[in-house]
Amino acid sequence: MTDIGVDDETERKSLKPAVDPGEARRVLLELYGLEAKEVSPLDSYDDNNFKVVVGHTSEDATAMHTTVYTLKIHNGVESSNLAFIEAQNAMLAHLKAKCKQYTFPAPVASKAGNLIETAALAVKEGAVRPLAVRLLTWVEGTLLTHCSNTDPALLEKVGEMAAKVNTALADFDHPALRRHHAWDLANAAQLQRYLPYMDDADRRSLVESVLAAFAAEVLPAAATLRSACIHSDLNDANIVVSADGAAVVGAIDFGDAVRSWLVAEPAIAMAYAMLSPAARATGDALGAAAAALAGYARALPLFPAETMHLRTLVAARLCASAALGAHALRRDPANAAYLSLHQAPAWAALALLWRGAAAVHTRALWEKASMGVPLRTLLRVSQPGRKRALSADGGDGSSGGGGDRRPPRAVTFVTGNAKKLEEVRKILGASLPFELVSAKVDLPELQGEPADIAREKCRIAAEQTGGAVMVEDTGLCFAALQGLPGPYIKWFLDKCGHDGLNRMLAGFADKSAYAQCIFAFCEGPGRDVLLFEGRTYGRVVPARGPPDFGWDPVFEPEGGGGETYAEMAKDEKNKISHRFRALDKLRSHLLSLHDTSNGSAAVEAAACDASAQPAPAKRPAQAAAAAAVAPPAPAAAAAPITAITFVTGNAKKLEEVRRILGASLPFELTSAKVNLPELQGEPADIAREKCRIATERTGGAVMVEDTGLCFTALQGLPGPYSKWFLDKCGHDGLNSMLQGFDDDSAYAQCTFAFCAGLGQQVHIFDGRTAGRVVPARGPPDFGWDPIFEPEGRGQTYAEMAKEEKNKISHRFRALDQLRQYLIENAEAVRTQMEAAR
After folding, report:
1. Mind listing the domains of the chain with CATH numbers?
2. Are strands 643-647 and 702-711 parallel, antiparallel or unpaired?
3. In degrees, to the nearest 5, what angle opens at C-alpha 832 toward C-alphas 831 and 834?
4. Which of 94-103, 196-205, 551-560 has the lowest mean pLDDT?
5. 327 in helix, strand or coil?
6. Which residues are annotated as part of the binding site?
7. Neighbours of 728 (CB within 10 A)
8. Closest Cα to residue 699, out of 636, 652, 761?
9. pTM
10. Which end of the chain, C or N, has fewer beta carbons within 10 A?
11. What is the pLDDT of residues 489-499, one digit of tens each?
């Protein structure tokens, strides 16, 4: 067999700690001041784990008691990335606070007060290296793999725990979890590289078939799958149950944690449910997976766009267990007992799922599990050889079949705000012929015209939920600024406050404005998006009324009796509000659908279509916006291994950047026009996210640029939104925006983001040139250059010679930092580029 080369998984095996119990005892004493009574090695994939029992004397010295810990010595790969270990600690702390029903390990501080320590220890390859060390509290109970309870109902509880963990982590994120990881289910297509470790040709063919389906069906629909921080390895060796097997206690080993597709969590739990003691005892692996899914979906419902891919995702995880297990076994034969734990059952389960059971049977079974069909009904029909089949109503075709909870005829309002849902329900009224439910869906904050923003967000939401959706976009629009700040109002409110919003209009005679709300409605994936706009006209005034509800205190609507939104009674405001006007139009549309007998049928048909067909192909602009949620897998890059792609379609800009970077750059600079979303946010965050998307879309090393003109008086705004203000207000309008402030200073900002390739860190290089905003001077044909005068120059950017401007420009300053980084770290960057390829 030919070795496929050094990669992350291979390096983990070479740098696995080689620490014996005696050395572990010494580390425990030196770092934590604890003397162990017992030290026992534990099974581990890449690390060295030890169960340590420490004795303590009571305060009155009359009794002894013991405390059990896990001493974890991390492999050399993770030890060089302490940020990821910190992310694990942060995730555990978050779960301790938000998921108190279950128990998880907790890091224990060392004598020095650190939750992560480092010690010079031996690794498998023979060298001594600095390795990260953690001491964790012990989770008392029995591992599921050793549990004597073989009732599938226990797997249902495992699924429920997985869902509650994901629910608790919904508001958790950590940059170190946005990493490339071989075990991440989203990277299943890359398992191809481990096929040479499989000696059996038939097994290789089986895995190749699954990976082909994954590439053809799942990856094109990646933008429809919700993303989240997940455990990513809820197998039977990481799930702790009570001694009697009646309850799930918690989960351990967060070493595979990653930000990935949310649906990966139940898919992984289902894959290992197929290998569980319950599956082996009953001979019903598909039913075991259905039990785990039923428990998960009951606590955290999945979208149809997610459940339609479960069969392929579960199969892909079984492929990962088989392929990566074969690789690990070849690299670490001394650990064969642990590494073989899932090998044989994984192959058997994969053969059953992909070749033995009819795909239509498996999909129907798991679809019903996700809809709440009782477990006893699922288990009666789960084995492929049985004659009874699932009927359309969810029963098992027999007279004694269990009942079914049919999915509601619902429209999903995309919001995580319970009060907003309540207000919308109140405005729509009880006559609505559909159930209105809500869901918190991660949607990109886009730049653009309000109607375009609402339309695109609704399209993405429909694909993510797989059914009928409605989304809302609101703004406060100043007539003097041609409808701005509009969709960017929250940024101006956050940075400038109510007083700042008033001052922005001091230089204009016109203080009129309108509150705008656009509801976008879509019956399902691939359907047209309909827009319903509501406007309430009024004017901007000094703040009056309670200050705790956005910009309400500064907007005085016409017909509001001289009161601001904030001063009005809620019922009175709802009668004239922009939200009411938009929802009234939407309600009329929904009622008309019902009256023509197309309403609920259309909604349900869309949901059925979404669960039976892959997502429709997206237009380039749509795909770019959707990429901000969950980008599809990259296409193969044509650029040389040492090339960096500057994402631009502007040949003159490429020429300017090449000139600034100079000939000494140790990399070739190419360019490509890549459709990237225009995002809202802080400049560094925008550049970082666009760079991440560009990396995934090109598959190689990239650099992207984001620029803006930032007014000090507006706390850095308009910044990334400068082009919209320039287009609508012109040079004079930008000057007038500052007349209400004493400070006319500003800075030109350029943010370059660079990434060496997939899974590599995004580096930010920020260049700023300080100056002030002045009446326009110089040629008017290059953006906002005519109104920006750099400090000490006496000329605007537009008046300066090109060579002189380039010496001090914000772009030059950012690129100079990038150039220095690439030169000083050339070898490391090349290594990262090669690893990413």
Report:
1. 1-138 (3.30.200.20), 142-390 (3.90.1200.10), 410-620 (3.90.950.10), 631-836 (3.90.950.10)
2. parallel
3. 65
4. 196-205
5. helix
6. 415-420, 445, 457, 473-474, 549-552, 573, 578-579, 648-653, 678, 690, 706-707, 782-785, 805, 810-811
7. 13
8. 636
9. 0.55
10. N
11. 999 999 999 99
